[in-house]
Amino acid sequence: MTLLKTFCCCGSLRTGTLVAGIAGIILAIIGIVVIFTVPVEFKTIVLDWLPKLAVQIIMVINFAMTILISILLIIGTVKRNMYLMIPWVLLGIMLAIGLLVSVIYTSVDFFLKDDNLSGGLFLVFGLIAFVVYVYMWMVVYSYFSIIKEETDRGAYTKDPFRRAYN
Residue 166: its pLDDT value, please? Predict the structure, then answer.
């Protein structure tokens, strides 16, 4: 996979990674607030028989985990520790796939209910969100790869059997 060199053509990958972590925290907090304040019916795709409260609890747990892995991403970026970044990198690509499936499923559901305006808007804005999310993941993955390469190189440059000769 081709790695990115910059964030938004002018910023560093480190800055982009920090933006991704901070954005994850902010969006998760907004999501938690929306779950408890906006009267919207949230459903799961597979377990659509779950009661509303159970779905809300599942979503809040997901948002709390997003906050946790975003904090780990920020700490890993600041300390240049690839191990703290791994959860965000691994879960980030899975969440991107889940986002795409959710956007397509919800759009099709709107279209099947003859709500073409909602289906079209959800599809367009959902795909834009997906593209932005994948780009942010690529920024983080590119920075992660740089740190991993530095860590791997550093691990092999030191000779553990070297003795000091007088």
Answer: 47
Which of these, 24, 20, 22, 21, lies nearest to 8 by C-alpha position?
Answer: 20
Structural contact between residues 17 and 139, judged by C-beta atoms closer than 8 angstroms: yes
Which residue shows structure tokens 């994850």? 24
pTM of the predicted structure, to 2 decimals:
0.83
Of 84, 69, 80, 87, the closest CA to residue 153 belongs to 80
Q: What was the pLDDT predicted at 141?
A: 97
Q: What is the Cβ-side half-sphere exposure of residue 55, based on CA atoms within 13 angstroms?
A: 14
Q: Within 13 A of 109's CA, how many CA atoms are on the CB side?
A: 10
Q: Which of 97, 95, 69, 100 is closest to 84 using CA atoms?
A: 69
d(CA 78, CA 166): 40
Distance CA 129, CA 113 (A): 23
Residue with tokens 């053509």: 9
